[in-house]
């Protein structure tokens, strides 16, 4: 089975973060032949509100929350509870079910508060940061999801644009990048689109279909 894991912001959206439903619906039209995962740093509630009818599964909060067949799995809840005792939610700092989110400008304050008290890892995403347990990343979430599928014959293709996408794209069988992807992702990818954002995702998806000899053009 082919598994297609896609980032959300600036991958399934335009540069203004508006979802490209024409592209999303096209990818979704290949289900169940292709298992479609949306893997994002965003909270699960947002992803379900905007994309639930289109995807088979969601990996939210950068891998800490997995949702499949109406069941939710949360990794790192105890870590979140410990961090909440150290840092208060306030302007520019907010919590998910597991992750601590912050504006980039508050990174120093967060490092000062957490260092020496709890193990953590920070990933940047444009003008914000995500703080999480050391073992959490998108690849962690996707691998836990794939194990639940119980199939040994999976081919994973992944696409994304930013630092928090590196773990899953590096671990995938087919590595896809966008014109707007950071250089680190472009450097190791099998395909880099000419167009940015969701139009680039469409290019990459068509490349994937051709590579695996899957009939496309379902617009």
Describe the structure.
The protein has eight helices and twelve strands. The strands form two sheets. The protein has an eight-stranded mixed β-sheet, sandwiched between helices. A four-stranded antiparallel β-sheet has the order 6-7-9-8. It starts with a strand and ends in an 8-residue tail after the last helix. The protein has two domains: 2-74 and 136-211, 3-Layer(aba) Sandwich (Rossmann fold), CATH 3.40.50.1000; 77-132, no CATH class. It is globular and about 55 Å long. The protein has helices at residues 21-28, 44-51, 77-84, 107-114, 138-149, 166-171, 183-188, 197-211, and strands spanning 2-6, 34-39, 57-60, 65-68, 71-74, 93-95, 100-103, 121-125, 128-132, 155-160, 174-177, 191-192. 42% of the residues are buried.
